[in-house]
């Protein structure tokens, strides 16, 4: 799929099942390295980032097999931590293998991880935390080399609740001798998912879902069957897409208990969101209402991964909105393509955008520069008058199983070319 073609102006109707969570599946797959037994990860999304992770696990010696509703992983033969360049190029999530491989092999050699162009995302927090656990780092021929003679527990305080750093510490800590305590840990549901999977494998973790997590290390881990929860970001994308394009949609299996901040913003936009046993039922307003101040913050606040989609919807609101980004400095790369579609957006600085809503966007040819911004441009195309062509779709494939299929099931006129 090189491009997505959208004929806008059609209200969404029907129901769609929400796929498994990308951000939860990747660290769980990394955690399978910590046991020599087979794990079955159910509801694992078939997206580009997961396929890359599977290839990376295979390159390390894992036996990996896709099943009808998930993936089986056996890491019995893993004995080295040298990750090939081609397996991690452009894949930021390969960083979560650092803690797991140190726990399994005691040594890791890897390229500095890449990913989307939404910000610097330095790995300093990861390195400083792992150093406290007995890991030495150096740079060799442009690669990062990490070695430990034995991981040990530590009291670690994070200056920022980084999801990736929290996950890396947890993965290393379950294999370390002694207890590890993380203060200022990220509270995102994906961290909870990782902890729950590890507990299924035999780990002992206290304080799951809080800012202070304690891991009792050194316990033998076993294989486990585990179901990845539905993707709250995909659910939020389609929820806001419905509010922008109009109509009513049932988001089956949407994890509403993880989406309080999202549902709050949807309500401010005029959407009616009903929590059902089956998921979330969304009814769009005639036209979205403006939001005086939308600010991204770590969970349980509004997620940065949905900022671009919310921004796109607010371009059609009946009034002025302010969107403040506090997590990543380059999230507003979507502003120029939205302006090309007729949006009235003023950037006060790198953190704040002021949006004057207009009756209707106009279709245009635009390019996705990163995953969530790409999905937001698709939602903007649904709202627009006329034809929109979105290129750069390899980014979108990283997080959405089949965004065109999903939206066609809701009545959208959308095709991939």
Properties at a glance:
417 residues; alpha+beta; UDP-n-acetylglucosamine1-carboxyvinyl-transferase, Chain; 2 domains; 14 helices
Helix-strand blueprint:
Layout (H helix, E strand, L loop, with lengths): L2 E5 L4 E6 L4 H10 L6 E5 L5 H12 L3 E5 L2 E5 L10 H4 L8 H9 L1 E4 L13 H9 L2 E6 L2 E6 L6 E3 L5 H11 L5 E5 L5 H12 L3 E3 L5 E5 L8 E3 L4 H14 L1 E6 L7 H9 L3 E5 L2 E5 L10 E2 L11 H8 L5 E5 L10 H6 L3 E4 L4 E5 L8 E3 L3 H13 L3 E5 L1 H5 L5 H7 L3 E4 L1
Parallel strand pairs: 2-14, 3-13, 9-10, 17-18, 21-22
Antiparallel strand pairs: 1-22, 1-23, 3-5, 4-5, 6-8, 7-8, 10-12, 11-12, 14-16, 15-16, 18-20, 19-20
Helix pairs in contact: 1-2, 1-7, 4-6, 5-6, 6-7, 8-10, 8-12, 10-12
Helix content: 25-40%
Mean pLDDT: 94
Strand content of the residues, in percent?
25-35%
Side by side, the strands of the main sheet go 21-22-1-23
Please describe the biggest sheet, giving its number of strands, its sense, and whether it closes into a barrel.
4 strands, mixed
Gyration radius, to the nearest Å? Answer: 21 Å
Net shape: elongated
Q: Can you say what the CATH homologous superfamily of the largest domain is?
A: Enolpyruvate transferase domain
- What's the helix count? 14
Stretches where pLDDT is under 50 for at least 5 consecutive residues are 115-119
Under the CATH scheme, the architecture of the largest domain is Alpha-beta prism
Overall tally of structural domains? 2
How widely separated are the two ends? 6 Å
In CATH, what is the class of the largest domain? Alpha Beta
What name does the CATH topology of the largest domain carry? UDP-n-acetylglucosamine1-carboxyvinyl-transferase, Chain
